[in-house]
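Q: A reviewer asked whether we had any structural model of the full assembly, not just the individual parts. We don't, so I'm hoping you can provide one. Inputs are below.
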Amino acid sequence: MNSPDPAPILDWYDRHARRLPWRVPPARSRKGERADPYHVWLSEVMLQQTTVAAVGPYFQKFLARWPRVQDLASAGLDEVLTAWAGLGYYARARNLHKCANAVVGEYGGVFPDTEYGLRALPGIGPYTAAAIASIAFDRHATPVDGNIERVMSRLYVVETPMPAAKPALRELAAGLTPSARPGDYVQAVMDLGATICTPRSPRCVICPWQGACKAFATGMTDVLPRRAPKPERPVRRAVAYWMVRGDGAVLLRRRPETGLLGGMMEVPSGPWEEVEMFRDAAPVKADWVELPGLVEHGFTHLRLELKVMAARIDGRSKADGVWIPVEKFGDHALPTLTRKVVRHALSHIGKGEAFS
Ligand code: SF4
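A: Here is a predicted structure for the entire assembly that you could use as a starting point for your response.
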């Protein structure tokens, strides 16, 4: 069996590289064209926790609206959050905006071209810095995501379960990155993980690394990477309060800047607590009506269950927030959870309906 070698995968990439809106073709056919660091950065931030297929339209929309990092920096944060809605993890959108401002304010609109320099920017962690440094600047750097971890665990048969295996996989991946064409190589391994060395039923027959792959040689492709059993996510419960004014406007408020959905608009809710029963924490006195069913939402580390109570409220009441007509909700960056609560409330009581 051969040792893993970058050459076959670079050859394969020259022939089969995925065409992605933020990419330039492989070195062999790109005729001096260079990847734009702004495009690479934008795509990498969007791709964190999201698929290539989902990111494509968002990437195009952002570029059409903000063609340069300077344009994005001068956009209002709310505009950026609204354009981001649907990609989730709004902290990333806030950091995106902060980072654009740092690039413009501190670096004259030019992205730093090293991993080290990129790490100093807001929202750029080790993975994103290595991805931008290698893809946009052809630096010798190795971004390691889930795809690359999977490929390495199979190539070398790493049996330690995830996530404990991560440091070893990172080291193996870094050891394989060549000094020549590191940017193409990194994208080649990303493509291999996404299209051939897939989580289930890898297509080893057409894999350029088949001859060097220990998992293929030992029939272990289906059991790697091994995973430690996932701990149960805790459940938090709270009550959301759907308050409707006489003219049909509904009260929304901005969540605190820190914490889950920080700074995003919500239907006001009580504290999210690990409790058996839903605790009523109505912000104002009213004839509250409990709507049937629950709104359920999964975060990475917890599951949230919201009971929704509704009431007609005097617009002069002291409740904190802004009154917004339901038809205007689309003008605001509403996270998925808030949209679920809105759908739930409207499915039971309709717009501006009186409740009894
Ligand atoms: Fe993955 Fe199969 Fe290729 Fe090994 S031979 S790297 S398991 S696709």
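A: Points you may want to mention in the reply: The radius of gyration is 24 Å. The first strand starts at residue 235 and ends at 244.
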